[in-house]
Amino acid sequence: MLSLILRRLLQAIPTLFLLITISFAMVRAAPGGPFSTERALPPEVERALQARYHLDEPLPQQYLRYLGSVVRGDLGPSFRYEEYSVNDLIAQGIPVTARLGLFAMALALLVGIGLGIAAAWWHHSTVDRLFMLAAVTGISVPSFVLAPLFILLFAVLWHWLPAGGYAPGTIAPMVLPVLALALPQMAYIARLTRGAMLEVLRSPFIRTARAKGLGMRLILLRHALRPALIPVLSYAGPALAGLLSGSVVVEQIFGLPGIGRFFIQGALNRDYTLVMGVTILAGVVIILMNLLVDLAYMALDPRLGARG
Amino acid sequence: MALLSIEGLRVTYPGMQGSLLHVVNGVDLELYAGEVCAVVGESGSGKSQTAMAAMGLLDEQAQVSGVIRFQGNDLVASKAWHGVRGSRIAMVFQDPMSALNPYLTIERQMTEVLMVHKGCSRLDARDRAIKELNHMRIPDAARSIMRYPHEFSGGMRQRVLLAMALLCEPDLLIADEATAALDVTVQAQILQLLKEVRDSHHMSIWIITHDLGVVAALGDRVAVMYAGRIVETGPVQEVFDQPAHPYTQALLEAMPRDDQPLRPIRGQPPSPAAIPPGCPFHPRCPRCFDPCDKEMPRGMSLSGEHKAACHLLSHPQELAS
Ligand SMILES: Nc1ncnc2c1ncn2[C@@H]1O[C@H](COP(=O)(O)OP(=O)(O)OP(=O)(O)O)[C@@H](O)[C@H]1O
Ligand SMILES: [Mg+2]
After folding, report:
1. Which CATH architecture has domain B4-88+168-320?
2. What is the pLDDT of residue A264?
3. B71/chain A closest Cα distance in angstroms
4. Nearest C-alpha neighbor of B77 from the set B91, B56, B58, B61
5. Hey, are the CB atoms on B91 and A211 less than 8 Å from each other?
6. pLDDT of A307 strictly over 50
7. Are B8 and B67 within 8 A, CB to CB?
């Protein structure tokens, strides 16, 4: 297991290197620059700024300089938020985004798996059909549609929950964003769980379990659930990383000061280092998630030899 | 009184375009306490479906009619398999490689049977399970029980499944091709175990097999199935020595022997969607004559327990020719 972790971390190095290189090229290929605002700056001011951030150097040299600082763990200064480094901004945003993503995923998994089991249990019944109808609807309505809808209903119309505004340690402002982010995932996970359960229920070992005279509860929860969770798991790991990009929109709509908002600001402002920093962070999270999924496989499936 | 008596069992499935698939077509079968009854027949003749009906394990779409009386209760009418399935009637299946849950230890899969049916504590159940594994000659049972199925060979897994089926000391064990997926030496070992089980546990065994060698080795009585019906039944020795039904004769002749070339039965068994009128075997029967394609032959007693359903039996002049 340790060797798996080590191997994966080593494999991550070239991946990250590639990610940095490509995103560097793409960010720089975009028109405009960090200091091209509506009002043109006096040429000497612009030149001084360029020199300060080494933007006057040839691109390969800038690239190597950036790479060097990333290797040292420094994502560079933000071009827009002058008094902050990208590391600072990310450190500020992470608690908000992580909370949003983790809560949303936990909710989606808990409710989604539960609904999936229920649908498999009452397979072919009204319950099953209703759940699946709801799930299909849920999957096809994306978060950026749900978010304004929720604001309209729960905040503007009924005044149940705030539409935005974030203060550390409060829960109420997080409810709607978490829901908006979680619902499509929940629906997808419910469908995935149901499908996987029904598939597993056709296996010969389930026939054995039924021949042993076990009740439906034991058959579903003890015998079928574990193998059925494997596809759910392989979806959920990368999906959690994917929630980062979902939260870009949701954070923007609900005015949450998370990484996603910095990313949008950074992209609009051509804040090169900020955009790159968030991209690298996303890459690292995806790699870690995949590793986590593999470790979880090993925990779930004895054949993968956690004890070998 | 029979331990299990099946009367007029029919199983049909809805087929394409409103048609019906006649999978089991009026099976009558009786199993007595302590006997080994072997059901043989070509693939698709409905052997497994009959057994699955007795276990109440058929698909939801299956339409079942007839009587399956176990220890006096009609299971089809009452649907009272609770307390019977897995405890009074146990079943082992063909493929031991996929019949165990790969995600759970042997201990978990065995103890749950006793905990559900006998209300045993986990520790008691574990002791019982280890004992049963020992009976089945699983080496080092106390440690083996903690392992997962993939750590066992096919033969060992079938022993585990057998041990699992015997945990509640059932009155009837159904073994559906329990040795078919194993290689010859392992087959012989499992057969030996089944013999010992028959003698030591004093239970009835219903074996389903293609292998007439298995029938000869283990069976007290044999029932020959064709197209969802039992066409001949009787004591193994009698049926093997004097098969009355041409299908049984053909089956026995098709049995591989060292000194003779294989003589497979000509033609194919009918599909459950289109069972021929009259005797379903008539299109393949070498002795087919006048009433065979029109009338269904009724079961006739030859001598005591030996019965067959063939028009030849009621037409002595044809039989002689
Ligand atoms: N769920 C089902 N729906 C429709 N037909 C089925 C279903 N299950 C089984 N059958 C059909 O029932 C017939 C009898 O099947 P069964 O499994 O009892 O045969 P068998 O005698 O056990 O054969 P084998 O020796 O190959 O195991 C087959 O033709 C099969 O295709
Ligand atoms: Mg079969």
Report:
1. 3-Layer(aba) Sandwich (3.40)
2. 85
3. 18
4. B56
5. yes
6. no
7. yes
Mutation to probe ligand 1, out of B20, B22, B49, B91 (largest number of atoms < 8 A from CB):
B49
pLDDT, residue B166, reads: 93
- Does the structure's ipTM exceed the value 0.85? yes
Of B57, B81, B83, the CB nearest to A207: B57
Atom of ligand 1 nearest to the CA of B59: 1
Q: Closest to A211 (Cβ–Cβ): which among B82, B86, B95? A: B86
Q: In this structure, which residue's CA is closest to atom 3 in ligand 1? A: B13
- The length of chain A in residues reads 308
Average pLDDT of B123-145? 93
Q: Is residue A76 part of a domain?
A: no
A130 plus A30 within the same structural domain: no
Q: Which ranges of chain A would DSSP assign to H, the alpha helix? A: 2-29, 43-52, 59-71, 86-121, 126-140, 143-150, 172-201, 204-211, 216-218, 225-254, 259-268, 272-300
Q: Is the distance from the beta carbon of residue B209 to the nearest atom of ligand 1 less than 6 Å?
A: no
Spatial neighbors of A153 by CB under 8 A, at least 6 apart, are none
The residues spanned by each domain of chain B are 4-88+168-320
Q: Which residues from chain A sit within 8 angstroms of residue B87, using beta carbons? A: 213
Q: Which residues of B touch A227 (CB under 8 A)?
A: 102-103
Residues A123 and A64 in one domain: no
Residue A273 has which token pair? Answer: 């280092």
